[in-house]
Each structure stands twice: as structure tokens, then as C-alpha cells.
Design goal:
about 425 residues; 14 helices; binds ligand EPZ
């Protein structure tokens, strides 16, 4: 089991290239199931999760090539096995993204229920409600969702809460349905918009992606396409906080400042200086950050995937901050680990009160989920002394060679085999 060893106290400086977005790459790869023609995805991140969905698609009979390189080529000439087995789905909940495309393309699917994960039960009831609205019959059988539909028919689907992969699943299913589908209270994340752009390049008719109302006019079939994956706004936000927490000066390259507005606004409120370019963002820490309050929300609000990273910055900020996690039920697993570094945090329900300390002190800590891992790295960069992070397999799911990128910025961080 690898560990990361970080010797804190170094100011980061220089430039870092932001990789393609994990949460865009996954639905984009699932979209290959919708067509017999080849799909080419550029700017693909080299991540464990990308390899996992590649393995899942191959299991179904999809040709997949290029994982681990910037360009992934996929072709679902035929879909031999329309099923997503438990042993694959349990390692990555986003596997549920094959459900909509399978039902739309071949009229049936057998997908394992994902089960919960560290940050909450994360049900998929809205995905299933939407497919039923489109005319699929859904059965739950021995931990699997079994869905069938001779031909999906367009319908109006109103989500009672905004779900990113729920919106993506149903947008893909509706693309091949007969007639028009309207998604109300759809998720507005940039990754939803990126998927709509790919679907339209394949010949779909999707309007309004990126807004709460998405209209999809079904078409009989879809073709292939070449598509460049958008930059990863969460990786970008993570590096922005790395610059802020070390009082450094870092330029993020190939990022989309327009996807980072809520995070940038919070950092500016905390006294961090940001200068946005066309596809770059310069982040300059100006001494100790000021404490600010944060409440996570669906896009364009402050991203829940940035909550842990912001909390790391607040542990050494000047003052007291109140952080409310309003999207997931249990996304404070990183708090106990931050306490081991000397942070002062009190949890009450879905709210954490952080009293900023002058400094953290390095210690051995344990990663519990993807973004908690990133939070512990950020705290270790700022802490005095050495921090050793174990269970960093969580990290490799969503960050492309993060220790190499941080080393290039001047951090003293290395991966060791325990
Ligand atoms: C996506 O997960 C992201 N994953 C998550 O990123 C991200 O945290 C989340 O959206 C919120 O932004 C991918 O895009 C692959 P949701 P998703 O459905 O789609 C509830 C990361 O770190 N809900 O938007 O699974 C759910 O329990 C990961 O990269 C239902 O109740 O999240 C949650 O409380 C972590 N029923 C809320 O909605 C449903 O049918 C938002 O979940 C679906 C969701």
C-alpha cells in the first residue's frame, strides 16, 4: 500500500497544467454505447476511474483503446453483454452511467446497484424514476437493477433534487427515445454541458444543457464523433488552494475560470489574489487567509467536491469559519484526520465550525475518500514537520500523478511503498 510523505512549509510557485475532467470523462465514455460508430475523446486524464469504466465497457463488448494516454478511442459496434457486474460497480458508483445508454441502445440492461460509499448512501432512485417515465420496466433482483424497454418514449421528468449522473443518464437515454423529453430541475454542472456537446456532435438534439431545463428531441440513431474533454475544475480548485495554503504563487494552465467562479469568489473573500486569463488562473496567497463561511450547493454554487479542500485552508485561517455540507449526508470523514494535525474543528450535524490555528503539526493520517485525500495533502503542505498519508489509492482515482505536479511546484512530497 503506497503512502505519501510530505514535509510541509514550502511555498509553491510555478505553473501546473490542469488535466481533463474525471467527472466528464466517465459519462463521455459511457456515451459510446449509444452508437455503432467510433468515438474519440481527447485530453483524457490518466486515472484509475477511467481505466475502471474502460474495463466495464470492454466487459460488455465495447472496443476501448488508449487509456493511460491523452486520447481514448471507443467503439460499440455491438454490445454483447448489457450488464455491469457488482465487482466492478462496487469500486466505482459512476458505473451506473451505463444504465441509460444500454436501455436506449439495446432495450435492456442488468446493472448492479452501486451500494453506499464513504460519503453517504447515494441512492439512484431518481435515475430509475426517470427511466420508468421513459417507459422502461425496472426490477430489483438480487442487488441488480434489471431494466427493459422495447422503445423508450419521450416524457417530462421532474427531479425533486439535482443529480449530476441522474441528469446525464437520462439525457443519454432520451437521446434515442421516440419523441421529446424534458428534464426539469436538471443538474447544471459543466460536465453535463460537456456530455450534451458530445451527444449533439453524435447527431443528438439536446437543448438547454447547463440550465435547469433540458429538452432532448429523440433521434433514431447516433453517429461517431471526436471530442475534447473539458479541464477538471476540481483539480484546478485543489491546486488553487495548494497555492493559497502555502502562501505561494501558482499559475493554473488549460483551466476554465468560468467553471471556477464560486470557488474563486470564496478564495478572494478569504484574501487570496486571483487573476483569470482566457484559459489560465494565477493564484497568489497573501499571508494568512481570512476565515470565511462555506455552504456547498449544486453548480453554480460552491462545489461539494471542494468542501474538504476549503476546510484544510480554513484550519490555518485567521478567525472562525462555518462550513455546511448541504449535498451529501456524511462528507466530514476528513475532519478526524485534520484533528490529528492539530486542527480545531467541531461538527454539529452537517455543519463544521473551524477555529483557525496559527499552524498545523505534521502527523500520520489516513485518506478515507477521494477529496478527503486531497484535503490531507493540502494540510500536509502547510503543516510544520512531516505528514504521512496512507490509503492513497483513493487519491489515484481522481488525481493524475498529483505528487509529480506538486513536486514541480516546489513541494517536498514523495510516494513511498509502505
Ligand atoms: C456526481 O456524483 C460526482 N460524480 C460527484 O463527484 C459529486 O460529488 C456529485 O456529483 C455532486 O456534485 C460524478 O460525476 C462521476 P448526485 P453523483 O447524484 O451524480 C442524492 C468526486 O469526488 N441523490 O449529484 O452520484 C445523492 O445522495 C465525486 O469526483 C438521490 O437522492 O451525485 C446526493 O445527496 C464524489 N437520488 C445528491 O442527490 C438519486 O437518484 C447529489 O448526488 C441521485 C442522487
Amino acid at each position: 500500500m503506497d503512502q505519501l510523505v510530505i514535509r510541509g512549509g514550502r511555498q509553491l510557485s510555478g505553473e501546473v497544467r490542469v488535466s481533463g475532467a474525471k467527472n466528464a470523462a466517465l459519462p463521455l465514455m459511457a456515451a459510446a454505447l449509444l452508437s455503432e460508430e467510433p468515438l474519440e475523446l481527447d485530453n483524457a486524464p490518466r486515472l484509475v476511474d477511467v481505466r475502471t469504466i474502460g474495463r466495464l465497457l470492454r466487459h460488455m463488448g465495447v472496443e476501448v483503446a488508449g487509456e493511460g494516454t491523452p486520447t481514448i478511442r471507443l467503439r460499440a459496434s455491438t454490445v454483447r453483454r448489457p450488464e455491469a457486474p457488482y465487482d466492478l460497480v462496487k469500486t466505482m458508483r459512476a458505473s451506473v452511467l451505463v444504465l441509460g445508454p444500454l436501455v436506449a441502445r439495446i432495450g435492456r440492461a442488468r446493472v448492479s446497484l452501486p451500494g453506499g460509499c464513504a460519503i453517504g448512501p447515494r441512492p439512484i432512485n431518481l435515475h430509475l424514476m426517470g427511466l420508468e417515465r421513459l417507459g422502461a420496466t425496472i426490477r430489483l433482483n438480487q442487488g441488480y437493477v434489471e431494466a427493459e424497454a422495447a422503445r423508450l418514449k419521450g416524457a417530462r421528468i421532474a427531479f425533486d433534487l439535482q443529480t449530476v449522473t441522474g441528469t446525464e443518464n437520462l439525457m443519454m437515454a432520451a437521446a434515442l427515445a421516440e419523441g421529446t423529453t424534458i428534464l426539469e430541475n436538471a443538474a447544471c454542472e459543466p460536465e453535463v454541458e460537456d456530455l450534451a456537446r458530445l451527444l449533439n456532435a453524435m447527431g443528438a438534439k439536446v437543448e438547454g444543457a447547463g440550465t435547469p431545463t433540458i429538452v432532448i428531441h429523440g433521434v433514431p440513431s447516433l453517429g461517431g464523433a471526436v471530442h475534447r474533454i473539458i479541464p477538471d475544475r476540481i483539480e484546478a480548485g485543489t491546486f488553487a488552494i495548494a497555492a493559497a495554503i502555502t502562501g505561494g504563487d501558482v499559475v493554473l494552465r488549460e483551466c476554465r475560470p468560468d467553471h471556477l467562479e464560486a470557488i474563486a469568489a470564496k478564495l478572494e473573500e478569504a484574501g487570496v489574489r486571483l487573476q483569470a486569463g482566457q484559459d489560465s488562473l494565477r493564484v497568489t496567497g497573501a499571508g494568512r487567509a481570512r476565515a470565511v463561511n462555506v455552504r456547498t450547493q449544486p453548480f453554480p454554487g460552491f462545489a461539494t467536491d471542494m468542501q474538504a479542500q476549503m476546510m484544510a485552508l480554513m484550519t490555518v485561517a485567521d478567525g472562525r469559519s462555518v462550513i455546511t455540507e448541504a449535498v451529501f449526508e456524511n462528507r466530514f470523514m476528513h475532519v478526524n484526520e485534520l484533528l490529528r494535525l492539530g486542527a480545531d474543528i467541531t461538527i454539529a450535524g452537517n455543519t463544521a465550525v473551524v477555529q483557525g490555528m496559527p499552524a498545523l503539526l505534521g502527523a500520520p493520517v489516513m485518506a478515507t475518500d477521494l477529496r478527503a485525500s486531497a484535503c490531507l495533502i493540502l494540510a500536509g503542505l502547510a503543516a510544520q514537520g512531516t505528514t504521512v498519508i496512507s490509503r492513497i489509492y483513493h487519491l489515484d482515482r481522481g488525481y493524475e500523478v498529483i505528487e509529480r505536479k506538486l513536486t514541480a511546484l516546489g513541494a517536498d512530497i514523495e510516494r513511498v511503498r509502505a
